[in-house]
Amino acid sequence: MSEMNVEAKVKSDPAAQSYDGPYEGGDAQPFPRRKVLIGAGAALLAIGGIWAYTHRNPGGDAARANQAPLVTVSAPGIATVAGTINASGVLAARHDMPVGVVGEGGTVVQVLVEPGAWVKRGQLLAVIDRQVQNQQQASSNANIGVAQADARIAQANLDRGLKLVANGFISNADIDKLTAVRDAANARVRVAQAQSGEMQAKIRRLNIVAPADGLVLDRALEVGQVVSPGNGVLFRIADKGEMEMRARLSESNLAHLALGQEVKVRPVGSEREFVGHVWQVSPVIDPATRQGVARIALPYDRDIRPGGFASAEIRSGSMAAPLLPESALQADAQGSYVYVVTGDNKAVRRRVKVAMVTEKGVAIASGLSGVERVVLRAGAFLTEGETVNPRSQPPQSSSKQN
């Protein structure tokens, strides 16, 4: 009876339900109170999570948006771009004429010009000693006199023979012999004259003369120096004093050049600017540097010194294209690209092709229509699909971000 009363009390008393000790009857019968507590705790956590989700801070999205990287963007539009190619190169004579020894050579006895002097075609530049050649010339002249005397004697003998053959004193065979002697004597006269002319030519070749009108650029001999054809260049002359700039350009820039195109050239160290014209475009490309040479004709001026360095600005027409600052462009192994911000503020990589680089920015040939929001700076720190916080900048300002 007592055990039945205890069970009824436990069932009716909530406090007794939490008791896990022995009953009054002395038997220990555990009650699952811990399981009840664990289940209640899990339910409370679930309810708290649901409440936090449904009652979250309405400013949380804005906070996360503020954590996105801030980037400056602009829609470049379409601009008319005047193509300008900047290049550098060396100054040189347009036609550099080397002058050396063309004869036997010898000792220099006189130098008549200095670098910077203007000379005429055939003007004497230097004289080589000719004492031996003068004696040889005198000997040749004497041989001419001997040959001419022999020719006169032979002619006189022939004239007498012609008178005698008419009277029958000598035969026609004798006349033929006299005629042959006369002809041989005349031939020896011509040989002596040719030898004398050859010696005169050798003597003239001891004079170093200017091959054309021009400006003396360099001199590499002194009085007393022994020279020969193996000495190489003794004078350098710029034909008519014309100069040029040899500008090295990439093969893509060479494709935009045309003969006669105007070029502005500024020598290093000079504040002056000279106007030249393209007169030759290299027909080959250096396979090592992928560059060619554009030769720009320049008028003579004392500030244009061969061997010096100069910069050139070449106008290459105009085109309509989006214009971006150089800071907007990135590059990898596949070529150039920019980051474009989509409507949901995602940074997306866009491949572009560069048309030309100008003072105002980079003209884009393809890849952009001009209405996209292009990241102007910090593109190197972005990743594909990253959420950004764009700040718009007017298109007219974007071209100044060089």
UniProtKB/TrEMBL annotation:
Biased composition (Basic and acidic residues): 1-12
This protein's record includes keyword Protease: no
Transmembrane segments annotated in the record for this chain: 36-54
Domain Multidrug resistance protein MdtA-like C-terminal permuted SH3 residue range list: 323-376
Annotated GO CC locations: efflux pump complex
The keyword Transmembrane helix is assigned to this record: yes
Record InterPro entries: Beta-barrel_RND_2 (IPR058792), BSH_CzcB-like (IPR058647), MdtA-like_C (IPR058627), RND_pump_MFP (IPR006143)
Pfam families: Beta-barrel_RND_2, BSH_CzcB, RND-MFP_C
Domain CusB-like beta-barrel residues, every copy: 247-316
Residue ranges constituting the CzcB-like barrel-sandwich hybrid domain according to the UniProt record: 105-239
Keywords: Membrane, Transmembrane, Transmembrane helix
GO molecular function term, any single one: efflux transmembrane transporter activity
Span list, region Disordered: 1-27
PANTHER family hit by this protein: HLYD FAMILY OF SECRETION PROTEINS (PTHR30469:SF15), MULTIDRUG RESISTANCE PROTEIN MDTA (PTHR30469)
Membership in a protein family: Belongs to the membrane fusion protein (MFP) (TC 8.A.1) family.
Name of the protein in question: RND family efflux transporter MFP subunit
Biological source species: Novosphingobium sediminicola
Organism taxonomic ancestry: Bacteria, Pseudomonadati, Pseudomonadota, Alphaproteobacteria, Sphingomonadales
